[in-house]
Amino acid sequence: xxxxxxxxxxxxxIYCLQEDARKTSASGIAEKAGVSASTVRNRIRxxxxxxxxxxxxxxxxYEAASYQLQTLIVCTAPIPDREALAQEALEVPGVxxxxxxxxxxxxxxxxxxxxxxxxLSRIGRDLDELGLEVVDEDLIRxxxxxxxxxxxxxxx
Length: 156
Fold this sequence. Notes:
Order of helices and strands: HHHEHEEHE
Structural class: alpha+beta
Largest sheet: 4 strands, antiparallel
Low-confidence stretches: none
Helix content: 25-40%
Strand content: 15-25%
């Protein structure tokens, strides 16, 4: 993680990439920020090396890809084991995201994709075998995301 504080150019770069990394170019950001494209590319490299930009992933519409069952599985892990169990949960086939939550119970949220109910049952069993207690399962209907407003220097 970088020890340098983010400046307005860093925040502008992050905001633009969060909005749509695929359709955002260094030259486009440079024009918006009033700097050169090479400056933007250098800043992006620094943000990546500093562990602030950690990836560029496509958003997938699982339903359109014929995977009808996108599920949030709420689990409880013993606090000393929470981080290790969360990492292990990522290895379960069908699991696409795991979030550790700072609570005593219901402290691991697992997003999983299943082709059918048997697939989701298998994922639940696999999580249970790891040592996670499955507390709740919810089908996700839609998910909405946006860039963090704190990186939008035009709004600050």
